[in-house]
Design a protein that fits this description.
Number of domains: 5
Radius of gyration: 24 Å
Structural class: alpha+beta
Strand order of the largest sheet: 1-4-2-3
Largest sheet: 4 strands, mixed
CATH topology of the largest domain: Conserved hypothetical protein from pyrococcus furiosus pfu- 392566-001, ParB domain
Pfam family, one: ParB_N
Number of helices: 16
Protein name: Chromosome segregation protein Spo0J, contains ParB-like nuclease domain
Helix content: 55-70%
Strand content: 5-15%
Amino acid sequence: MLVTLLIDELLPADSPRSAGENKEHVRVLAESEGELPPIVVHRKTMKVIDGAHRLRAAEMRGERTIRARLFDGSEVDAFVLAVEANTTHGLPLSRADRAAAAARIIGSHPEWSDRAIARVAGIAARTVGVIRRRATGGHCQLRTRIGQDGRARPLSTADGRRLAADLIESNPGSSLRQIAAATGISAGTVRDVRDRVERGEDPVPGRVRRGEERAVGVALRAGDPRSIVRDLKRDPALRFSETGRSLLRLLDAHAPMVEDREGLATNVPAHAAGMVAELARGYAGIWQKFAHELEQGGK
């Protein structure tokens, strides 16, 4: 959703551009006809994430306001968004700036794969790998990484099996070893997945699925839903889409219900208890339908 902001209220960006603003580019934008494209602003800090040149062009035109889209994520994610925006449109980042941005993203998101960071920074995945090795001294500090498609490889045996099933379907000529290397599971497990797929069965055995569900259930019963939400927040497929961020905010907002349900119930006024109870049942029903739709693949 577009909003109109006062230019005087905006702050400079945490820009990946080391040389600062390009005055010639600002002049060209200022002299162009028509309305400038909207900029992107971090809501919490009012820093410009994308559009510093457009902002300066608007000032040069003597304008007091500018159209913008607001970003609700963290400052760390705001920097990632700024890098991605500057590699896909506008004045390109220099190669040195892109490499420096990749190094910074490796530090803030070490669980991301080389390909995921390469896509954001606009450099080759091989280059990201070199930067990562320099930053970590060649030592791998994580057992899993999250790819550009949002999948952790392997976050669990179940995730590895699901990924293997996808690869078997999309690359039927791939060997067991190739799929095992891509998914982080053993060649024997890949063989079992292939056999299950050929039989039309779920690639994840029931006992493994139940183990996943129990892990989530244990966290919920322990009053620690935020640990689950924290894991989901590391998923770039959710963090960098508007729908994904909305879902994460919704899930995060429900955490207090698990952590202090009795306290919330005690403090509802008697005259409103019936209405709140009915509303809670209604929301519970909606969540049940949502869970069923997820299990059915969103159908």
